[in-house]
Amino acid sequence: MLRCHIYWANNSAFAHLAAPRGRRHTAARYDAAKQSGQARAICDGRVHNQFGEGRGLAPCCKDMSILLGCIADDFTGATDLANNLVRGGMRTVQTIGVPSSAMADEVDAVVVALKSRTIAAADAVAQSLAALEWLRAQGCRQFYFKYCSTFDSTALGNIGPVTEALMQALGTDFTIACPAFPENKRTVFKGYLFAGDVLLNESGMQNHPLTPMTDANLVRVLQAQSKGKVGLIDYETVARGHAAIAGRIAVLKAEGVRIAVVDAINNDDLMRMGKAFAGMPLLTAGSGVAIGLPQNFAAAGLLRESASASALPSPAGHEAIVSGSCSVATNAQVADFMRGGGAAYWLDPLKLAAGEPEVARALAWAQAVLAAGKGPLLVYSTAESHAVKAVQAALGVADAGAMVEQALAAIARGLVDAGVSRMIVAGGETSGAVVQALGVRALRIGSQIDPGVPWTATVGGKPMLLALKSGNFGTVDFFSEAFAQLH
Ligand code: ADP
Predict the structure, then answer these.
(1) Mean pLDDT to the nearest integer, 36-50
(2) CATH-assigned architecture of domain 68-299
(3) pLDDT, mean of residues 137-153
(4) What is the helix (H) or strand (E) element at residue 446, kind and residue range?
(5) Atom 25, ligand 1: residue with shortest CA distance
(6) Cβ of residue 391 lying under 6 Å from some atom of ligand 1
(7) CATH number of 318-486
(8) Which of 5, 194, 262, 360 supports an S-S bond with 178, CB 3.0-4.6 Å?
(9) Predicted confidence (pLDDT) per residue in 105-125, tens digit
(10) Could you tell me the pTM of the whole model?
(11) Do strands 92-96 and 46-48 pair parallel, antiparallel, or not at all (unpaired)?
Protein backbone atom coordinates (compact mmCIF):
# COMPACT_ATOMS: atom_id res chain seq x y z
CA MET A 1 0.00 0.00 0.00
CA LEU A 2 1.15 3.51 -0.74
CA ARG A 3 0.63 6.67 1.24
CA CYS A 4 -0.84 9.55 -0.68
CA HIS A 5 -1.93 12.99 0.48
CA ILE A 6 -4.67 15.26 -0.71
CA TYR A 7 -3.96 18.93 -0.05
CA TRP A 8 -6.63 21.59 0.09
CA ALA A 9 -6.01 24.79 -1.83
CA ASN A 10 -4.46 26.62 1.13
CA ASN A 11 -2.45 23.56 2.20
CA SER A 12 -4.20 23.76 5.58
CA ALA A 13 -5.53 20.26 5.67
CA PHE A 14 -4.98 16.97 4.04
CA ALA A 15 -6.30 13.48 4.01
CA HIS A 16 -4.12 10.41 3.90
CA LEU A 17 -5.13 7.89 1.32
CA ALA A 18 -3.82 4.45 0.83
CA ALA A 19 -4.05 2.74 -2.50
CA PRO A 20 -2.55 -0.42 -3.93
CA ARG A 21 0.27 0.18 -6.39
CA GLY A 22 -1.07 1.51 -9.66
CA ARG A 23 -4.70 1.56 -8.49
CA ARG A 24 -7.02 4.51 -8.16
CA HIS A 25 -7.75 6.59 -5.09
CA THR A 26 -10.97 5.93 -3.22
CA ALA A 27 -13.67 7.95 -4.90
CA ALA A 28 -15.33 9.28 -1.73
CA ARG A 29 -12.23 10.93 -0.30
CA TYR A 30 -11.19 12.20 -3.68
CA ASP A 31 -14.58 13.81 -4.22
CA ALA A 32 -14.38 15.43 -0.77
CA ALA A 33 -11.12 17.08 -1.69
CA LYS A 34 -12.45 18.10 -5.06
CA GLN A 35 -15.40 19.87 -3.52
CA SER A 36 -13.07 22.07 -1.51
CA GLY A 37 -11.97 23.91 -4.62
CA GLN A 38 -8.54 23.65 -6.18
CA ALA A 39 -7.35 20.74 -4.11
CA ARG A 40 -4.31 18.85 -5.30
CA ALA A 41 -3.47 15.25 -4.75
CA ILE A 42 0.18 14.57 -4.19
CA CYS A 43 1.76 11.16 -4.12
CA ASP A 44 5.15 11.77 -2.59
CA GLY A 45 5.97 14.67 -4.82
CA ARG A 46 4.14 13.69 -8.00
CA VAL A 47 1.15 15.95 -8.47
CA HIS A 48 -2.15 14.74 -9.87
CA ASN A 49 -3.78 17.44 -11.91
CA GLN A 50 -6.98 15.65 -12.74
CA PHE A 51 -9.04 17.43 -10.11
CA GLY A 52 -12.06 19.17 -11.55
CA GLU A 53 -11.88 17.15 -14.72
CA GLY A 54 -15.16 15.43 -13.93
CA ARG A 55 -14.19 11.95 -12.94
CA GLY A 56 -12.65 12.67 -9.61
CA LEU A 57 -10.27 9.75 -9.71
CA ALA A 58 -6.57 9.67 -10.32
CA PRO A 59 -4.11 6.84 -10.60
CA CYS A 60 -1.94 6.36 -7.59
CA CYS A 61 1.46 6.95 -9.07
CA LYS A 62 3.95 6.85 -6.25
CA ASP A 63 5.28 3.46 -7.10
CA MET A 64 8.83 4.42 -8.10
CA SER A 65 8.04 3.18 -11.59
CA ILE A 66 9.72 4.90 -14.50
CA LEU A 67 7.53 6.51 -17.14
CA LEU A 68 9.71 6.16 -20.22
CA GLY A 69 12.30 3.44 -20.81
CA CYS A 70 14.76 4.11 -23.63
CA ILE A 71 17.35 2.00 -25.39
CA ALA A 72 20.00 3.96 -27.31
CA ASP A 73 22.36 2.36 -29.82
CA ASP A 74 25.34 4.51 -28.79
CA PHE A 75 26.61 6.55 -25.87
CA THR A 76 26.53 10.12 -27.18
CA GLY A 77 23.16 9.45 -28.83
CA ALA A 78 21.87 8.38 -25.43
CA THR A 79 23.01 11.67 -23.89
CA ASP A 80 21.39 13.59 -26.73
CA LEU A 81 18.05 11.87 -26.04
CA ALA A 82 18.35 12.29 -22.26
CA ASN A 83 19.11 15.97 -22.78
CA ASN A 84 15.87 16.45 -24.76
CA LEU A 85 13.83 14.66 -22.08
CA VAL A 86 15.31 16.83 -19.33
CA ARG A 87 14.53 19.94 -21.37
CA GLY A 88 10.92 18.70 -21.44
CA GLY A 89 10.83 18.43 -17.64
CA MET A 90 11.56 14.72 -17.20
CA ARG A 91 14.15 13.72 -14.61
CA THR A 92 16.42 11.41 -16.56
CA VAL A 93 19.26 8.99 -15.88
CA GLN A 94 21.50 7.51 -18.54
CA THR A 95 23.02 4.12 -17.73
CA ILE A 96 26.17 2.77 -19.32
CA GLY A 97 25.06 -0.62 -20.54
CA VAL A 98 22.31 -2.66 -18.90
CA PRO A 99 22.44 -2.16 -15.10
CA SER A 100 22.84 -5.21 -12.91
CA SER A 101 20.57 -3.86 -10.17
CA ALA A 102 17.31 -1.94 -9.88
CA MET A 103 17.20 1.84 -10.35
CA ALA A 104 17.58 3.38 -6.90
CA ASP A 105 17.00 7.01 -7.94
CA GLU A 106 13.46 8.27 -8.44
CA VAL A 107 13.41 9.40 -12.06
CA ASP A 108 10.91 9.82 -14.89
CA ALA A 109 13.00 8.36 -17.70
CA VAL A 110 15.99 6.08 -18.10
CA VAL A 111 18.14 5.80 -21.22
CA VAL A 112 20.18 2.60 -21.41
CA ALA A 113 23.20 3.39 -23.56
CA LEU A 114 24.39 0.45 -25.65
CA LYS A 115 27.12 0.31 -28.28
CA SER A 116 25.01 -1.63 -30.77
CA ARG A 117 24.85 0.54 -33.86
CA THR A 118 27.37 -1.31 -35.97
CA ILE A 119 27.72 -4.69 -34.29
CA ALA A 120 26.16 -7.86 -35.82
CA ALA A 121 22.35 -7.60 -35.95
CA ALA A 122 21.88 -10.70 -33.78
CA ASP A 123 24.09 -9.19 -31.06
CA ALA A 124 22.29 -5.85 -31.29
CA VAL A 125 18.97 -7.66 -30.89
CA ALA A 126 20.22 -9.65 -27.88
CA GLN A 127 21.59 -6.54 -26.14
CA SER A 128 18.45 -4.52 -26.87
CA LEU A 129 16.20 -7.27 -25.51
CA ALA A 130 18.31 -7.45 -22.34
CA ALA A 131 17.91 -3.69 -21.95
CA LEU A 132 14.15 -3.99 -22.54
CA GLU A 133 13.85 -6.72 -19.92
CA TRP A 134 15.59 -4.53 -17.33
CA LEU A 135 13.45 -1.50 -18.24
CA ARG A 136 10.27 -3.57 -17.96
CA ALA A 137 11.39 -4.75 -14.54
CA GLN A 138 11.59 -1.07 -13.52
CA GLY A 139 7.91 -0.66 -14.44
CA CYS A 140 8.33 1.59 -17.50
CA ARG A 141 5.05 2.54 -19.16
CA GLN A 142 6.38 3.31 -22.64
CA PHE A 143 9.53 2.33 -24.52
CA TYR A 144 11.73 4.20 -26.98
CA PHE A 145 14.43 2.79 -29.25
CA LYS A 146 16.83 5.61 -30.10
CA TYR A 147 19.07 5.59 -33.18
CA CYS A 148 21.02 8.20 -35.08
CA SER A 149 19.29 11.15 -36.75
CA THR A 150 21.01 10.09 -39.97
CA PHE A 151 19.42 6.63 -39.63
CA ASP A 152 22.87 4.98 -39.56
CA SER A 153 22.34 1.35 -40.56
CA THR A 154 23.08 -1.20 -43.25
CA ALA A 155 20.85 -3.45 -45.35
CA LEU A 156 21.22 -6.02 -42.55
CA GLY A 157 20.28 -3.66 -39.76
CA ASN A 158 20.37 -2.83 -37.06
CA ILE A 159 17.32 -0.57 -36.90
CA GLY A 160 14.85 -3.02 -38.52
CA PRO A 161 15.86 -6.19 -36.64
CA VAL A 162 16.02 -4.45 -33.25
CA THR A 163 12.67 -2.73 -33.84
CA GLU A 164 10.94 -5.98 -34.77
CA ALA A 165 12.48 -7.87 -31.85
CA LEU A 166 11.32 -5.19 -29.40
CA MET A 167 7.83 -5.20 -30.96
CA GLN A 168 7.60 -8.95 -30.57
CA ALA A 169 8.82 -8.85 -26.96
CA LEU A 170 6.29 -6.14 -26.13
CA GLY A 171 3.49 -7.91 -28.01
CA THR A 172 2.72 -4.87 -30.13
CA ASP A 173 1.86 -4.96 -33.83
CA PHE A 174 2.62 -1.34 -34.74
CA THR A 175 5.27 1.30 -34.20
CA ILE A 176 6.75 4.34 -35.89
CA ALA A 177 10.20 5.27 -37.19
CA CYS A 178 11.30 8.89 -37.30
CA PRO A 179 14.87 10.17 -37.14
CA ALA A 180 13.76 13.82 -37.57
CA PHE A 181 15.45 16.38 -35.31
CA PRO A 182 14.67 19.76 -36.92
CA GLU A 183 16.75 21.73 -34.35
CA ASN A 184 19.73 19.78 -35.72
CA LYS A 185 18.60 20.20 -39.33
CA ARG A 186 17.40 16.63 -39.74
CA THR A 187 13.96 16.62 -41.37
CA VAL A 188 11.80 13.96 -43.01
CA PHE A 189 9.50 14.86 -45.90
CA LYS A 190 7.48 12.33 -47.91
CA GLY A 191 9.62 9.69 -46.25
CA TYR A 192 12.88 11.23 -47.48
CA LEU A 193 15.49 12.20 -44.89
CA PHE A 194 17.25 15.53 -45.32
CA ALA A 195 20.49 16.52 -43.55
CA GLY A 196 20.52 20.30 -43.76
CA ASP A 197 19.41 21.33 -47.24
CA VAL A 198 20.36 18.11 -49.01
CA LEU A 199 19.12 14.55 -49.14
CA LEU A 200 20.85 12.11 -46.80
CA ASN A 201 22.63 10.38 -49.68
CA GLU A 202 24.16 13.70 -50.80
CA SER A 203 25.20 14.81 -47.31
CA GLY A 204 28.46 12.91 -47.03
CA MET A 205 26.73 10.04 -45.24
CA GLN A 206 26.92 8.07 -48.51
CA ASN A 207 30.65 7.74 -47.79
CA HIS A 208 30.40 6.69 -44.14
CA PRO A 209 32.95 3.90 -43.56
CA LEU A 210 30.62 1.63 -41.55
CA THR A 211 27.06 2.64 -42.44
CA PRO A 212 27.06 4.29 -45.89
CA MET A 213 23.61 5.78 -46.48
CA THR A 214 23.10 5.71 -50.23
CA ASP A 215 19.29 6.04 -50.24
CA ALA A 216 17.38 8.87 -48.52
CA ASN A 217 14.01 7.10 -48.83
CA LEU A 218 13.49 5.73 -45.33
CA VAL A 219 10.54 3.54 -46.26
CA ARG A 220 12.78 1.70 -48.72
CA VAL A 221 15.76 1.64 -46.36
CA LEU A 222 13.75 0.29 -43.43
CA GLN A 223 11.82 -2.18 -45.60
CA ALA A 224 15.13 -3.71 -46.70
CA GLN A 225 15.98 -4.45 -43.05
CA SER A 226 12.51 -5.53 -41.88
CA LYS A 227 10.30 -8.59 -42.21
CA GLY A 228 7.04 -6.70 -41.63
CA LYS A 229 5.52 -4.13 -44.00
CA VAL A 230 6.78 -0.54 -43.75
CA GLY A 231 4.52 2.42 -44.58
CA LEU A 232 4.41 6.22 -44.32
CA ILE A 233 2.55 8.85 -42.30
CA ASP A 234 3.22 11.82 -44.51
CA TYR A 235 3.52 15.50 -43.80
CA GLU A 236 -0.05 16.41 -44.79
CA THR A 237 -1.41 14.03 -42.18
CA VAL A 238 1.04 15.17 -39.48
CA ALA A 239 0.16 18.83 -40.15
CA ARG A 240 -3.54 18.09 -39.51
CA GLY A 241 -2.80 17.02 -35.94
CA HIS A 242 -2.96 14.06 -33.62
CA ALA A 243 -6.47 12.90 -34.61
CA ALA A 244 -5.49 12.73 -38.28
CA ILE A 245 -2.32 10.84 -37.34
CA ALA A 246 -4.38 8.36 -35.30
CA GLY A 247 -6.73 7.92 -38.28
CA ARG A 248 -3.83 7.27 -40.63
CA ILE A 249 -2.38 4.71 -38.20
CA ALA A 250 -5.70 2.83 -38.24
CA VAL A 251 -5.67 2.77 -42.06
CA LEU A 252 -2.05 1.61 -42.20
CA LYS A 253 -2.72 -1.13 -39.66
CA ALA A 254 -5.65 -2.36 -41.72
CA GLU A 255 -3.30 -2.51 -44.72
CA GLY A 256 -0.94 -4.73 -42.75
CA VAL A 257 1.72 -2.08 -42.12
CA ARG A 258 3.74 -2.71 -38.96
CA ILE A 259 6.21 0.19 -38.97
CA ALA A 260 5.38 3.66 -40.28
CA VAL A 261 8.03 6.21 -41.17
CA VAL A 262 6.73 9.62 -40.06
CA ASP A 263 7.39 12.99 -41.70
CA ALA A 264 8.42 15.94 -39.50
CA ILE A 265 9.98 19.23 -40.51
CA ASN A 266 9.66 21.33 -37.36
CA ASN A 267 9.09 21.08 -33.62
CA ASP A 268 5.34 21.68 -34.01
CA ASP A 269 5.20 18.44 -35.98
CA LEU A 270 7.04 16.67 -33.16
CA MET A 271 4.55 18.01 -30.61
CA ARG A 272 1.57 16.85 -32.71
CA MET A 273 3.18 13.46 -33.17
CA GLY A 274 3.97 13.19 -29.47
CA LYS A 275 0.29 13.65 -28.63
CA ALA A 276 -0.73 11.02 -31.15
CA PHE A 277 1.79 8.50 -29.78
CA ALA A 278 0.78 8.79 -26.11
CA GLY A 279 -0.58 5.26 -25.96
CA MET A 280 1.92 3.56 -28.26
CA PRO A 281 3.93 0.96 -26.32
CA LEU A 282 7.08 1.35 -28.45
CA LEU A 283 8.46 4.29 -30.39
CA THR A 284 11.59 4.15 -32.54
CA ALA A 285 13.23 7.43 -33.42
CA GLY A 286 16.16 9.81 -33.24
CA SER A 287 16.20 12.09 -30.23
CA GLY A 288 13.77 14.61 -31.78
CA VAL A 289 10.53 12.67 -31.20
CA ALA A 290 11.31 12.81 -27.46
CA ILE A 291 10.51 16.54 -27.55
CA GLY A 292 6.82 15.70 -27.95
CA LEU A 293 6.53 13.09 -25.20
CA PRO A 294 6.86 14.91 -21.85
CA GLN A 295 3.57 16.75 -22.55
CA ASN A 296 1.72 13.43 -22.42
CA PHE A 297 3.07 12.51 -19.00
CA ALA A 298 2.47 16.05 -17.74
CA ALA A 299 -1.13 15.98 -18.99
CA ALA A 300 -1.66 12.73 -17.11
CA GLY A 301 -0.34 14.40 -13.95
CA LEU A 302 2.61 12.07 -13.77
CA LEU A 303 5.47 14.57 -13.80
CA ARG A 304 6.78 15.96 -10.54
CA GLU A 305 6.07 19.66 -10.32
CA SER A 306 8.45 20.73 -7.59
CA ALA A 307 12.15 20.19 -8.29
CA SER A 308 13.54 21.13 -11.68
CA ALA A 309 14.24 18.12 -13.88
CA SER A 310 17.79 19.32 -14.46
CA ALA A 311 18.67 19.82 -10.78
CA LEU A 312 21.85 17.97 -9.85
CA PRO A 313 23.69 17.59 -6.55
CA SER A 314 26.46 20.11 -5.99
CA PRO A 315 29.42 18.20 -4.57
CA ALA A 316 32.17 20.33 -3.04
CA GLY A 317 35.63 19.76 -4.49
CA HIS A 318 38.16 20.77 -7.10
CA GLU A 319 37.56 21.35 -10.81
CA ALA A 320 39.55 19.81 -13.65
CA ILE A 321 39.53 19.23 -17.41
CA VAL A 322 40.97 16.15 -19.10
CA SER A 323 41.26 16.54 -22.85
CA GLY A 324 42.19 13.84 -25.36
CA SER A 325 40.25 15.23 -28.29
CA CYS A 326 42.32 16.61 -31.16
CA SER A 327 39.39 18.16 -33.01
CA VAL A 328 39.52 21.72 -34.31
CA ALA A 329 37.01 22.86 -31.69
CA THR A 330 38.87 21.26 -28.79
CA ASN A 331 42.21 22.71 -29.93
CA ALA A 332 40.60 26.16 -29.86
CA GLN A 333 39.05 25.50 -26.43
CA VAL A 334 42.39 24.39 -24.96
CA ALA A 335 44.12 27.46 -26.41
CA ASP A 336 41.37 29.73 -25.04
CA PHE A 337 41.69 28.19 -21.56
CA MET A 338 45.46 28.77 -21.50
CA ARG A 339 45.16 32.27 -22.94
CA GLY A 340 42.93 33.04 -19.97
CA GLY A 341 45.74 31.99 -17.59
CA GLY A 342 44.42 28.48 -16.81
CA ALA A 343 46.92 26.00 -15.34
CA ALA A 344 47.67 23.31 -17.95
CA TYR A 345 49.84 20.19 -18.26
CA TRP A 346 50.71 18.80 -21.69
CA LEU A 347 50.78 15.01 -21.76
CA ASP A 348 53.35 14.08 -24.40
CA PRO A 349 52.50 10.77 -26.16
CA LEU A 350 56.12 10.22 -27.20
CA LYS A 351 57.32 10.49 -23.58
CA LEU A 352 54.57 8.07 -22.58
CA ALA A 353 55.65 5.64 -25.30
CA ALA A 354 59.24 5.91 -24.10
CA GLY A 355 58.08 4.67 -20.70
CA GLU A 356 58.55 7.94 -18.86
CA PRO A 357 56.36 8.29 -15.72
CA GLU A 358 54.10 10.88 -17.32
CA VAL A 359 50.95 9.91 -15.40
CA ALA A 360 52.72 10.30 -12.04
CA ARG A 361 54.29 13.59 -13.17
CA ALA A 362 50.95 15.00 -14.29
CA LEU A 363 49.33 14.04 -10.98
CA ALA A 364 52.17 15.49 -8.89
CA TRP A 365 51.82 18.73 -10.87
CA ALA A 366 48.02 18.67 -10.38
CA GLN A 367 48.29 18.15 -6.64
CA ALA A 368 50.59 21.17 -6.35
CA VAL A 369 48.21 23.33 -8.41
CA LEU A 370 45.21 22.25 -6.35
CA ALA A 371 47.07 22.77 -3.06
CA ALA A 372 47.89 26.31 -4.19
CA GLY A 373 44.19 26.87 -4.96
CA LYS A 374 44.92 27.56 -8.64
CA GLY A 375 42.22 25.37 -10.26
CA PRO A 376 40.45 24.60 -12.47
CA LEU A 377 43.34 22.79 -14.10
CA LEU A 378 43.73 21.13 -17.47
CA VAL A 379 45.63 17.97 -18.44
CA TYR A 380 45.65 17.55 -22.20
CA SER A 381 47.13 15.53 -25.05
CA THR A 382 45.18 17.66 -27.52
CA ALA A 383 47.35 18.58 -30.49
CA GLU A 384 47.09 19.98 -33.99
CA SER A 385 46.66 17.46 -36.78
CA HIS A 386 50.29 17.58 -38.01
CA ALA A 387 51.54 16.71 -34.49
CA VAL A 388 48.96 13.92 -34.17
CA LYS A 389 50.02 12.48 -37.52
CA ALA A 390 53.69 12.49 -36.44
CA VAL A 391 52.78 10.57 -33.26
CA GLN A 392 50.62 8.15 -35.22
CA ALA A 393 53.43 7.58 -37.74
CA ALA A 394 55.80 6.76 -34.89
CA LEU A 395 53.46 4.61 -32.77
CA GLY A 396 50.63 3.47 -35.05
CA VAL A 397 47.14 5.01 -35.04
CA ALA A 398 45.40 2.45 -32.80
CA ASP A 399 48.28 2.01 -30.36
CA ALA A 400 48.81 5.75 -29.98
CA GLY A 401 45.08 6.27 -29.36
CA ALA A 402 44.75 3.48 -26.82
CA MET A 403 47.91 4.49 -24.96
CA VAL A 404 46.85 8.13 -24.63
CA GLU A 405 43.30 7.16 -23.63
CA GLN A 406 44.56 4.86 -20.88
CA ALA A 407 46.98 7.47 -19.56
CA LEU A 408 44.30 10.17 -19.47
CA ALA A 409 41.88 7.77 -17.77
CA ALA A 410 44.49 6.97 -15.09
CA ILE A 411 45.07 10.70 -14.61
CA ALA A 412 41.31 11.28 -14.26
CA ARG A 413 41.15 8.62 -11.56
CA GLY A 414 44.12 10.19 -9.78
CA LEU A 415 42.50 13.62 -9.97
CA VAL A 416 39.35 12.26 -8.32
CA ASP A 417 41.50 10.74 -5.58
CA ALA A 418 43.08 14.18 -5.17
CA GLY A 419 39.69 15.74 -4.50
CA VAL A 420 38.39 16.71 -7.95
CA SER A 421 34.60 16.40 -8.01
CA ARG A 422 33.71 18.43 -11.13
CA MET A 423 35.34 17.29 -14.33
CA ILE A 424 35.07 18.06 -18.02
CA VAL A 425 36.31 15.36 -20.38
CA ALA A 426 36.91 16.32 -24.00
CA GLY A 427 36.76 13.56 -26.61
CA GLY A 428 34.26 10.79 -27.27
CA GLU A 429 36.69 7.87 -26.94
CA THR A 430 38.51 9.65 -24.14
CA SER A 431 35.20 10.06 -22.27
CA GLY A 432 34.51 6.34 -22.66
CA ALA A 433 37.91 5.48 -21.19
CA VAL A 434 37.51 7.94 -18.29
CA VAL A 435 33.98 6.80 -17.42
CA GLN A 436 35.21 3.21 -17.37
CA ALA A 437 38.25 4.03 -15.23
CA LEU A 438 36.06 5.89 -12.74
CA GLY A 439 33.68 2.91 -12.56
CA VAL A 440 30.70 5.07 -13.52
CA ARG A 441 27.59 2.98 -14.28
CA ALA A 442 24.94 5.69 -14.58
CA LEU A 443 24.64 9.45 -15.00
CA ARG A 444 21.84 11.79 -13.97
CA ILE A 445 21.40 14.37 -16.73
CA GLY A 446 21.45 18.05 -15.78
CA SER A 447 21.22 21.33 -17.63
CA GLN A 448 22.65 21.85 -21.07
CA ILE A 449 25.99 23.70 -21.26
CA ASP A 450 26.05 23.90 -25.05
CA PRO A 451 23.78 22.06 -27.52
CA GLY A 452 24.15 18.33 -26.93
CA VAL A 453 26.45 18.64 -23.89
CA PRO A 454 24.80 18.65 -20.46
CA TRP A 455 26.34 18.54 -17.01
CA THR A 456 25.75 15.11 -15.51
CA ALA A 457 26.06 13.66 -12.03
CA THR A 458 27.29 10.15 -11.30
CA VAL A 459 24.65 7.91 -9.74
CA GLY A 460 25.57 5.63 -6.85
CA GLY A 461 28.58 6.13 -4.61
CA LYS A 462 30.05 9.55 -3.96
CA PRO A 463 28.48 11.92 -6.51
CA MET A 464 30.66 13.86 -8.88
CA LEU A 465 29.78 16.08 -11.81
CA LEU A 466 30.94 15.16 -15.30
CA ALA A 467 30.61 16.99 -18.60
CA LEU A 468 31.45 14.61 -21.45
CA LYS A 469 32.10 16.59 -24.61
CA SER A 470 32.61 14.85 -27.92
CA GLY A 471 35.19 16.43 -30.20
CA ASN A 472 33.60 19.19 -32.19
CA PHE A 473 30.96 20.28 -29.65
CA GLY A 474 31.03 23.47 -27.66
CA THR A 475 31.91 27.13 -28.15
CA VAL A 476 35.50 28.34 -27.83
CA ASP A 477 35.10 29.30 -24.14
CA PHE A 478 33.35 26.01 -23.30
CA PHE A 479 35.67 25.07 -20.42
CA SER A 480 35.26 28.30 -18.46
CA GLU A 481 31.56 28.61 -19.34
CA ALA A 482 30.83 25.09 -18.13
CA PHE A 483 32.35 25.77 -14.71
CA ALA A 484 30.77 29.23 -14.55
CA GLN A 485 27.35 27.55 -14.86
CA LEU A 486 28.03 25.71 -11.60
CA HIS A 487 28.90 28.82 -9.57
P1 ADP B 1 37.03 13.22 -30.60
O2 ADP B 1 35.70 13.20 -29.90
O3 ADP B 1 37.54 14.59 -30.88
O4 ADP B 1 37.06 12.30 -31.80
P5 ADP B 1 38.30 11.13 -29.12
O6 ADP B 1 38.70 11.10 -27.68
O7 ADP B 1 37.12 10.30 -29.53
O8 ADP B 1 38.10 12.63 -29.54
O9 ADP B 1 39.49 10.64 -30.02
C10 ADP B 1 40.77 11.21 -29.97
C11 ADP B 1 41.78 10.08 -30.10
O12 ADP B 1 43.07 10.64 -30.32
C13 ADP B 1 41.89 9.25 -28.84
O14 ADP B 1 42.06 7.89 -29.16
C15 ADP B 1 43.13 9.82 -28.17
O16 ADP B 1 43.77 8.90 -27.31
C17 ADP B 1 43.99 10.12 -29.35
N18 ADP B 1 44.98 11.19 -29.09
C19 ADP B 1 44.83 12.21 -28.22
N20 ADP B 1 45.89 13.01 -28.25
C21 ADP B 1 46.74 12.51 -29.18
C22 ADP B 1 48.00 12.91 -29.67
N23 ADP B 1 48.62 14.00 -29.23
N24 ADP B 1 48.57 12.15 -30.62
C25 ADP B 1 47.96 11.05 -31.09
N26 ADP B 1 46.76 10.62 -30.68
C27 ADP B 1 46.15 11.34 -29.72
Answers:
(1) 46
(2) 3-Layer(aba) Sandwich (3.40)
(3) 95
(4) strand 442-450
(5) 388
(6) yes
(7) 3.40.980.20
(8) 262
(9) 889 999 999 989 989 999 999
(10) 0.81
(11) unpaired
